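Hi L.,

As promised, Branched-chain amino acid ABC transporter permease:
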Amino acid sequence: MFELLGIPPQALLGQLLLGLINGSFYAVLSLGLAVIFGLLNIINFAHGALYMMGAFVAWMLLNYAGIGYWPALILAPLIVGVFGIVLERLLLSRLYHLDHLYGLLLTFGLALIIQGLFRNYYGISGLPYRIPDALAGGYNLGFMFLPKYRAWVVVASLVVCFGTWFMIEKTRLGAYLRAATENPVLVGAFGVNVPLLIMLTYGFGVALAGFAGVLAAPIYSVNPNMGADLIIVVFAVVVIGGMGSIMGSILTGYFLGLIEGLTRVFYPEGSAVVIFVIMALVLLVKPEGLFGRAT
């Protein structure tokens, strides 16, 4: 059928795989946003800058401390998460009882500051990050050559996304988190340290951004602007899936990555805007998002 349209099946399958890889980044980043908004009601516009910071931390661990990719995959998210905890304690904790707009403006300002600091020190030219030896090379699928590292990105993102969903939706800790967002006074009366829970939740959300940054470092050049454009797309993914919906963000991220890949085959000029067109249509029909709850 696709050959009748003048589209080789190899090109279609290749773009679908590339779309799945992009969708993996969309899913992990939108998951972090959904965790922070769904549990803390903060629109974290600094998420893209923290994603960039995760990539830079991995690069600095390699070049300044000789720490390779696999330890950095754990250390970089932890460092970014600790940085997020400091931000939450010093700044964001003062805004929980205010309108969402204040949190958005604060995190937007933080994003500009973080990006500006890295831009002043490292410039805007990309810094290379070597693919680990264990993931060098690729697989010949017949219709395309799939690098092992890109296959690893898809697998790692799936494990992290659905592991996070299981923790929040199916465990006692997740139940405490969800209860603390609904009625923090009542949860605190049962002896739960609600401020500590909120602080760790924000740290975990931004650690997910740092994890995505480490995954992205060997694929994209590490530079201060790498999260600036991506965060706009990720916000669109979260809005389509439903603000605060964990599973909605995961499924929508992968789905929109595939849609973006298909658009590159049938109408390449529209691939940059197709996600925003879908967002507009979803908001017209279901303003709370595909998986969100009406308020």
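The CA atoms of residues 21 and 145 lie 14 Å apart.

Thanks again for sending the construct details.

K.
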